[in-house]
Design goal:
alpha+beta, Rossmann fold, 2 domains, 11-stranded antiparallel β-sheet, 4-stranded parallel β-sheet, 14 helices, ceramide kinase activity
Length: 437
């Protein structure tokens, strides 16, 4: 034993290196072993679920999955193949994988998809927004929204909507992805609100000459009298964009975008400090017209018409013996005098966000003005999901936002868009998503 300690003391550099290497190697093997055991248990559970009969009216054996290979630094495909695809196959699904190769390809394909039972999205918030936009731009959008439930495989960089939907306590990617996949296997759907965003088209006018009269001259020669008038050029109406997580613009958005472009080798705190330090000061000035938030009253409540479904005689007879689902009693509706009334306000802020709320409304988050030091400190607090920068919160159902002074770009579900006047509203319970609860 003394010889061993003597060798370690004489070769302490090699001993330290071997110890550190052994420590990380053992931890890596332990993590791989845990992942193997968890995936084996989930695959066994998925196999049992695949042998169970489906709920009445459910046809969920064919999945069309949109995979964004460029998401998460091109790590999305290995994550999906390792933690999600085996579970789907063990559950007996027929999976058709569509790999996107360019921007807006998922949007175009979602607008054409027909022969499938489930739509799944393996990517981030941007890929999910493209699929939702393509689905709701269809001519049969109302029918497609109820026909194709959407499953989310969070393998992207930004997965805000997936985190809110899945409510996974663990930060481990393997557990988040596998839990999202098991939600599809168990076929538990939950309706979610969607934000509809339309650009307010401001027509551009150009002066042109137009003949307004014909005046005779002294030589009895008719001379046309012209004057300058403004001719309005009609542009094609922009198509709406549909979002799930929200709209974001301002200094924090620019700083976080700069941070995302930096290398993660330097650490989260250093990249946050450096990106927030070199972000220029920006001010967002806008005139906003909005209707105050109303979760539901006598004015805005609309009874959905009952569709006449063509069923066979045998189905109608058998439906008498099927147990009926207990319906929850409806809350009594009240009359809200402010429902639908438009209110105007002008804002000036370094940060402006729009996010959906749990009661089926939207909220504008107006940030407070910060010094450079406070801006950096608040950026470091964002690592722990702190939201101390919000000064005012305004709830609304629909709004028109006219920028007066604004940054060049904003983010809608993580995708970059040019800042223009826009109209936004909430579509309550528009789409069905697979949820673990």
């Amino acid at each position: 034993m003394a010889k061993v300690f003597k060798v370690l003391r004489n070769n302490w550099k090699k001993s330290v290196f071997a110890g550190v290497l052994s420590y990380y190697g053992i931890n890596y093997l332990i993590d791989r072993r845990k992942q193997f055991l968890i995936m084996r248990a989930l695959c066994e559970e998925a196999g049992k679920q695949g042998q169970m009969p489906l709920p009445i009216g459910a046809h969920n054996k064919h999945i069309t999955l949109f995979l964004n290979p460029a998401a998460s630094g091109r790590k999305s495909r290995p994550k999906f193949e390792k933690f999600s695809e085996p579970i789907l196959h063990m559950a007996g699904f027929l999976v058709t994988i569509v790999k996107t190769e360019r921007v807006d390809e998922a949007k175009e394909l979602a607008g054409l998809i027909q022969k499938t039972n489930i739509i799944a999205v393996a990517g981030g918030d941007g890929t999910l927004s493209e699929v939702v936009t393509g689905l709701l731009r269809r001519e049969d959008a109302s029918e497609a929204a109820k026909t194709y439930p959407i499953g989310i495989i969070p393998v992207g960089y930004d997965n805000q909507f997936a985190s809110d939907l899945l409510k996974c306590d663990s930060t481990d990617e393997m557990q988040q992805i596998s839990q999202a996949t098991m939600a599809i296997v168990k076929h538990r759907v939950e309706p979610k609100d969607v934000m509809e965003i339309r650009v307010i088209d401001v027509p551009e006018s150009q002066p042109v000459e137009e003949v307004v009269a014909v005046a005779p001259s002294e030589d009895n020669v008719e001379t046309p009298v012209t004057e300058m008038v403004e001719k309005v050029e009609e542009k094609p109406k922009p198509k709406p964009v549909y979002a799930l997580s929200g709209v974001r613009l301002g200094m924090f958005r620019e700083a976080l975008k700069r941070k995302a472009d930096m290398s993660t080798i330097l650490g989260d705190y250093f990249t946050t400090f450096w990106s927030f330090l070199w972000t220029d000061e920006q001010i967002f000035k806008a005139e906003i017209r909005y209707t105050p938030s109303c979760p539901g009253c006598l004015k805005c409540f609309k009874e959905e018409p009952i569709k006449n479904q063509n069923t066979s005689f045998v189905s109608r007879v058998m439906s008498v013996f099927r147990p009926r689902q207990a319906q929850e009693p409806r809350k009594p509706l009240v009359e809200n005098e402010q429902c639908g009334m438009w209110t105007s306000v002008c804002i000036e802020t370094p940060e402006f966000n729009i996010r959906p709320q749990e009661d089926g409304t939207l909220a504008m988050e107006i940030g407070k003005k910060l010094s450079t030091t406070d801006f950096i400190l608040q950026g470091l607090k964002l690592i722990s999901n702190s939201k101390d920068t919000i000064e005012t919160k305004i709830g609304f159902n629909e709004a028109e936002i006219i920028p007066i002074q604004a940054p060049e770009y904003c983010s809608i579900d993580g995708d970059e868009f040019e800042v223009r006047p826009f109209y936004i509203r909430v579509l309550k319970n528009k789409l069905l998503f697979f949820s673990p609860t």
